[in-house]
Amino acid sequence: MSGTISVLMITGMSGAGKTVAMQSLEDLGFFCVDNLPPALIPKFVDLVRQSSGSVRRVALACDLRGGALFQPFVDTVWALRQEPHLDVTVVFLDADDETLVRRFKETRRRHPLADGGRLLEAIQEERSALAEVRALADMVLDTSNWRPSRLKQELQNRFGGQTQTLPVHVISFGFKYGIPIDADLVFDVRFLPNPHYIESLRPYTGEDEPVYEYVMKWPATQEFIRRTEDLIDFLIPEFQKEGKSHLVIGVGCTGGKHRSVAIARHLAEHLRTRADVQLTHRDARREG
Predict the structure, then answer these.
(1) pLDDT of residue 176
(2) How far is CA 110 from CA 11, 22, 57, 256, in A?
(3) Of 90, 124, 159, which marks where a domain is finished?
(4) For the chain, what is the total number of helices (H) and then of strands (E)?
(5) Rounded to 5 degrees, what are φ and ψ at 284?
């Protein structure tokens, strides 16, 4: 089979961020498998080769949770590095002892080597056991002073390829039917003049030009759009810095048929040059 398969192996100290790393890599399009015994990795790679190119990038998390099953890790890495058409990268996640102790106490999780002993002793034992693994790593990331968003951004910078745009879902809705439960931002446009009270416009929705033009012609509408677009343009890169994977914007009016549809349509068009936009009119056809 032609083409190179990228195999990214995530390992390191317990509590250093492997869970966050795997979630982040999955968002970047990697096929992720957690806690795979190293002895099974060559068989897994063979399965990937048989996928006819549908899987090109895989991320595997391996660590001391596997106990004795983790022991072949170093030999497995060296063997994979000798195989053609495999790009093998080992990332070792580390953190200082004080940080690891604090994280385990905050999450109240048991260290895999604790066995009833002191947490600090278990961390030091793990550090000693992983010394050879750390030495063969292609990169070591010290997450001691990192928030999860910083680790996610670091992995994006190193393995994300092209800069990804933030997926944004714009939803128009009617307050009388409830606010979308997954909305991150909600804008209430019930202050705008209502086409519902114009008999000739009532049968139409904000997708139809007569209603759209009616909603857009008011100075209050233009001022609202200007301020809202400025706010959203500011927030999108800030959300991306914090590692947000998607953004849901709700625009609501009374029935979700006229004003909210027109405004949501306009905002979606504005965002198409800077985000991956999906537009839904939840309640536009509910009446009439």
Answers:
(1) 94
(2) 18, 20, 31, 50
(3) 159
(4) 10, 9
(5) -60, -30
Cβ contact 202:210 at 8 Å: no
| 8-state DSSP, 110 | P
Rounded to whole angstroms, the Cα distance separating 194 from 183 reads 24
Predicted model pTM: 0.65
The domain that holds 34 is classified in CATH as: 3.40.50.300
| 213: exposed, middle or buried (Cβ count in 10 Å: 0-12, 13-18, 19+) | exposed
Encoded tokens for 152: 């996610």
CB 41 within 8 A of CB 68: no
> Which residue stretches of the chain have pLDDT < 70?
1-2, 116-117, 161-164, 287-288
Give the domain range for residue 184. Answer: 167-281
Joined together, the tokens standing for residue 231 give 């706010």
Decide if 267 is inside a domain: yes
Q: Does 147 lie in the same domain as 40?
A: yes
**66/119 same-domain check:** yes
Q: Can you read off the two tokens belonging to residue 181?
A: 């439960």
